[in-house]
Amino acid sequence: xxxxxxxxxxxxxxxxxxxxxxxxxxxxxxxxxxxxxxxxxxxxxxxxxxxxxxxxxxxxxxxxxxxxxxxxxxxxxxxxxxxxxxxxxxxxxxxxxxxxxxxxxxxxxxxxxxxxxxxxxxxxx
Length: 125
Prior knowledge:
alpha/beta, Transcription Regulator spoIIAA, six-stranded mixed sheet, 4 helices, about 40% helix, globular
């Protein structure tokens, strides 16, 4: 398990990356992702993971996230596209009701496999 980005910098996304037996789990540790620079850094961190390993199996755990800005949702969509290009497999887990509603209304939920818990998402590979 390791952290990406210095946790003391307000512009760095707070991530915990854990390598499991079958997949990599990224826990987003920010309650809200609204700061533009933090969202860009989140994108860069997730791109680095998706680009760094062919056929990556990745779970993005949103359990600690209450709200995502439009830009942060855009990052998830962009990471989904990048994962598709790299033959990576992506799951979302523990999506808060407000975020799920946004994904449903925008029909973006159709682009993701969403699981209730990170454990369930990790076992789905």
